[in-house]
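Usage

Read records sequentially. Each one opens with the input sequence:
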Amino acid sequence: MHYLGSHMKFMYAFSICLSIIIIFPVMCYAEDRPTLFDLSGELPEVSPEIARREVDIPKIDALDFEVGIYGGMLNVEDFGANYLSGVSAMFHITEDVFLNANYGRSQVKDENFRRLNLPLFGESGKRSISELNVLVGWNILSGEMFWSKKTAFTTDLYLLVGAGSVDFDDESYFEMIGGVGVKILITDWLALRMEAKVSEYESSFLGFKNKSHNVDAITGISVFF
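and closes with the structure output:
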């Protein structure tokens, strides 16, 4: 019995020593370990510094009128390309849909036929040609064009389709027209536009009926009011 009591005391003392050996280093490590999250203080205020760019958007209302002038090149099938000039008027039905009326004049020359000894236009060698048409325009893509880091212009990419008439050598021909254009709003009352159009009409100028095509590329300026 005395042996068992001594043995029990020894085991008890050994357990206490072992506990101290294991727990003490852990407590020391926990005290020395840096705190990952300190929630005792207030969170710092975050104030993002965002440089905002001022954009001057042209204030163009729907249902506005627009008039302008244009110039460019007109290519008439079988007669080559010549200068074209004209006037235009637009009526904005909505923000994306508008009507466009154009009247332009040019001249054609018979140089290609004179090489074959066929002077179609007599001694002058040229004839006047004019076109009057009404088109429907549809803005399909709006965006911006950057002139510099601080200057940007609003732009519109649009499609054109319509009909009109071509007057050539005292004859009038009905034509169908399709095209595409880009408008750049310089200010809230002035715009620069560039267009390319193709027209098709049935002509009998050469003595037989055939489908002729005209292609024009123009640049113009217009004013809103």
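Summary fields computed downstream for this record:
- The longest strand covers residues 126-146.
- The first helix runs from residue 2 to 32.
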